[in-house]
Structure formats: structure tokens, C-alpha cells
Amino acid sequence: MALLCLFPSAMAQTMLPADTLQEVVVTGTGTQHLLKDVPVQTEVISRQQLEQYGARSIEEILGGLTASFAFNEDDMGSQLQMNGLGNSYVLILVDGKRLHGDNGGQNDLGLIDPARIERIEIVKGAASALYGSDAIAGVINIITRKPAEGYFVENETRGGSYADLRQHNAVGVTIGKVQSLTHFHYRHSDGWQNTATEDPTQIGGRVITDSQNKTVNRNQLWQVSERLSWRPMEGMEAYADGMLYHKRIYRPNGKYAVADVHGYDLSYDDAAASAGWSWALRSGHRLSADVTWNRHGYFYDYTSEKGWLVESDHPSKPYIYFDGDRVLQADQRRTMVQLKGIFELPHENRLSVGYDFRYDWLKAPLRIDSSRATDWTQAIYAQDEWNPLRWLNVTAGLRMDHNQQFGLHLTPKLSAMASLGDVKLRASWAQGFKSPTPKEQHYRYVRDMGGIRLYLGNTDLKPQTSNYVSLNVEYTISKVSVSVTGYYNKVDQMINLVTIPASQAPGALILQYDPAFVRQYQNLEDAYTAGVDVNVKWNITREIAVGGSYSFLQAHGSVYDEETEQLRDIIIDGTAYHKGNLFATWRHLFKKGYRLGIGLYGRASSTRFYENYGNGKAFHIWRLSTTHDIECRAITSHGLTLRAEAGVDNIFNYVDRTPHLRHLGTTTPGTTVYAALVIRFHRGTKVKDTSKHSTLKKTYNNEED
Questions:
Q1: pTM for the complete prediction?
Q2: pLDDT digits (tens, 9 = 90+) for 27-52
Q3: Is 2-683 a CATH 2.40.170.20 domain?
Q4: CB 501 within 8 A of CB 562
């Protein structure tokens, strides 16, 4: 069959990718809009961009394709930042549902399989009126690919340097009105070591140049999920889905390795289940109801050959663990109920109303004072999108939260968009509200890495509120689009880890651990982030595109220093003044049914600032990726598509060799290579898209956006 691809076919014509501005987005307002008409500034990373870039993880995708993000990956998570605010201020959604998987305060982004992503929608700035807590900095919505009717089988295998292996499998079957979708995801990496030097300032002045500690430890994970849906009538769907996930991080043994002190690996066991119903009426009204349950378990798996004495909160009752023992560190569970209605009203009004309920439950026997901690919040909200004039949209929303500990709070939002020919002007003002989490209030964590570090919760924390304003100008003409956004986000009572004198910590803990330093969650006196984001894209020809993004950021806060009795200015940890991305892509369909794509990508950051343990170095890294698609009719007419990807990351072999226990600008190991093979087989008819605003019909194996 493949030999037939040697002959010309009707598909051997250069194809112009669909205009990204015609993409249908849903995150900014919770309703469907074409990207060019969305009232709230929204960035989209399309499927075509994802496939051309060839990233191995969501961290690589966001860090490589937009300048607003920064990461500092370690065993405890990705430590994501978005325009200066950390992970706890960024709401991450997968198909509109909250991602749950807290590793030391960081969501485990390994729960997201890059091979499943159709597109990523990014909304910056406070979106609490619509989405509630955790959306003070913005929202990232991961939209996954949905299968067409019929049946399909998909396999994607990716391998790279340092035994990096990614495996994705999917099977979908539609029988009548019932559809099943099963996914499997596996990932493995041997990890790497960028330096064998330890920081002598943190290990008593000793000079160590032959440490076994790695920059990134060996790790692996697997994930399996199932989704069943039933469409009893046009526009109506009921579904149920579930997921199981396991991740283990293997810590090294050997000279000066951390595991020689602690003797355990880190393991994470997650589970999720949800069910829901939606109904899109012919009148344009939409109703939906969802119930979601998530569980995130964090464990130490002990690996030592002998028993290890671990100090407990009760010196008279020490714990002794042996090789093979598994000890729970934290069990976090969340239950959510969401009800929503969207109504098309007269006089160009669209009204969204909803009710949310969230219950958080934390059990951490070794890390909180009580046996468990809980918290619940319920909220009602309403949002109206009004088009008083053909060229003007005004969107206003109001949310009322009722928190178990902190009572009632109102969160308003107001935005407007004016379409003036080739220019669009957007302005937004929104407030945010975020109550302290059970971990921030009750958690206690000890790290022994060249010296005891004690991290403390704080039951006296106050809720955080924010005021966000932004102004966006977007200019699109012919093949060029330019977007410039200025923003200011003032966060009152921001919760942050702050270094405090040991004398301020509970005396029993000081006697028990004798820490080298103590950090505690505290409310800052005030904090703000302000900056400018610029995005540029130029489709030079039907095959060649260039562009990039730039982010300038100021992120500061003030904290009261009890020793000096004065306010002390701090730069928010992990922020950099300047970040940028560049890209140039070329895609060509040859006459023999072979499409070649080539992409060159660069990303750079200035110095990243930290209060303790040194700043992260500035860097710039370049990446070359290629894609290879067979598009002749002899193959595609049988429902089969073939795709290969290959590339080189960090072409100029930059490595940050900062000693262990200090901050890195980037964890890259230097030049790496990768290759992937994708095989998709599909039989069936396309699913009809009845969306009022959609101009596209998509299938699971759709190659164009």
C-alpha cells in the first residue's frame, strides 16, 4: 500500500492551514466564541503547533511556546509560574475540570498526557468571578481530543536521550448512542546529573565534588483512564469517567546522596471519578451538571537495607522503618459539584449562572497537628455578555463565595471589547478571592539536605484578595497579527513562604529538629505583579511562519520584619524581569504524498530571583524539530495515518552547573535528541458539530486546526 505513495495523488497540493483566529475557544467567558471575537484576551496553542514543537511534557509546551510561564522542576513538582504568580494562583483545567494532584504545593503536571491535547487555551489575569479560588493569576484549560463516531486505535511511541520513553495508546468505540474511550499513558526517564558539586555554604563548609545527587532523578509513571458517554438525543449527553495514576521518583544511593540520609523513594498514587450531564437546546440554551471526586496520595517508600529511626512529634514514640515499608505523608481528597446554565436572552444578551461546591479533606499523620483537616466553599455566580452595538461587547460578572472559615465574599468582574476594523481593544478589571488551604494552615515539613530546613503552616492566615486591571491592543492585517497587553495585579494578604527567626517557631519543634533555618507561610503586607506581554505572528507565505512572544515582569512584595520592626521589600521567588520565545516554521506537501515540517524555536530568560540559596542564571536555548506525514490516498483512504517526529533540543549544549541545593535557571542536561512514531487507524463518520459558533468539524485524527 505504501508503494502507491510514490505516485502523485490529488492530495499533493500545498494546503493553507486554517486561520487560527477562527478557532473556537471557551475558557475566557465560559461560553463559545471565535478567537478573534472573544471578549477576554485569550492565547491559544493549537494542535498544529503542538505537533510541530514535539514536546515531551506540558512544561516544555508552555515554557517553549509562550513567554508568560516559568518552571523550576524538582521532585516535589513543576513549580509553575504565570506572570509572576505561582502554581496556587493558577487554575489548571482539563476539559473544564480542575486538575488535582498536589506535590508539596505544586500540581503534578505528569497527570497531563501531551499526546491527548487538542489545544491549550490560556486566559491571564483574575478569573475568580467565573472560576472561583485558584484563578487569581489566570486559567490554563487543556482541551483534549475527542473521537469521531465509529472506532479507532492509536499508538504513539517516543524515545529520547537519558532513556526518555513516552508511550500513549488509545482505543475508542461507538456503538449506537454509546461511546467508550480508553487511554493509557506511560513515561520513564533515567534522569541526569549536571554537576557532582554540593554547595558548601549549606553543608557546613565541606567541599564535595563527587556527590551522587542528580539534577533530575530517575522517575516513571503510568496512567489509565476510561470515559463512557451516552447521547440519548441530539444535543444531550451523559457521561462517567475514571482515572488511576502512579508515579515513583527513585532517589540515588551512593556517596553523599540524599537517599543515604533518608533512605526512601517518593511515590504518588492518584485516582479520580466523575459523572455529568449536559444538554444543548436548539434555542441556544445550555444546561450542565457535574460531580467530581479526586484523591492524591503521597508516600515514602523506604529503600534502606537496615532500619531507620525517624523522629516523630512525640519523642517517646519514635518511628522505625525498614526496607519495603510504605508510609503515608499526605492523603488529599476533593469533592466538587458544579451546576451551570447558559441562556440566550433578547437584546443580544447571553446569561451564564451557576452553583459550585468544593470540599477539601487532608490527612497527614506526620505533618499536621490534628489527625485531619477539612475545608469547604460554596458559591453562586452570574455573568452577562451583552452586545449593545455590533462592534462592542460588555461582559460583567459577580460571584459570591461562602467559605467555612471566612464567611461571605463578593468577587466582581467587568470587561469590554471594541472591534474597530483591523484593531481590537480589550479592557478588563476583576477582583480575586482565595482562602488559605488546609496545607497552608496546618502542614509541617522537614527537609534534611545538608542541614535541617523546617517549613511551617500558619493557622492565623487571612484570605487573599486581588485587583487586576489590563488593557490589550490587537492588530491583525493580512498575514500579520500583533497583540500587546499591559497588566497590573495587586494581591492583598498574599500568602508566601517567608524566612523567620527560629525564635518565632514553636519551641518543641526547635528542640526536636534544631533547624538551620525556618520558613513559614505568612501574609505579606502587600504584593503586586505588573508587566507587558507582546505576541507577534507573521505568515510570510502559505508555508512559512515566524513569530514570538516577550514578557516583561515586575513582581514585588513587602513583609514585616519583627527584628528590625520595619517593612522589608522582597522580589517574589522565581520571577525574572525578561522572558522571550521565538519560532520559525516551514511546512511543505511534496507531490508524492509526503509532508515535511521543520521548526526552529528559541526561548530565553534573564536572571530568576530568589530570597534564599542564590538566583537562577539567565539562559537561552534553541530547539530544532521535524515532522514527517504520509498523506497519500492509498493510506488515508483506508483510515490509516502515519506520522514521524524527530528533533534536537538545546542545540548549543547549554548546561547550568550550579552546585546542588542552589537554584537553577534551567534543569536542561544539555543537547538531547528525540524521535517518535504515531500510528492512527479510524473507521467511521465524523461527528456533526452543532455548536452555534463553530465553523469547524473535527475528528480524533484531524491533522489540521
A1: 0.89
A2: 888 888 888 888 888 899 999 999 99
A3: yes
A4: yes
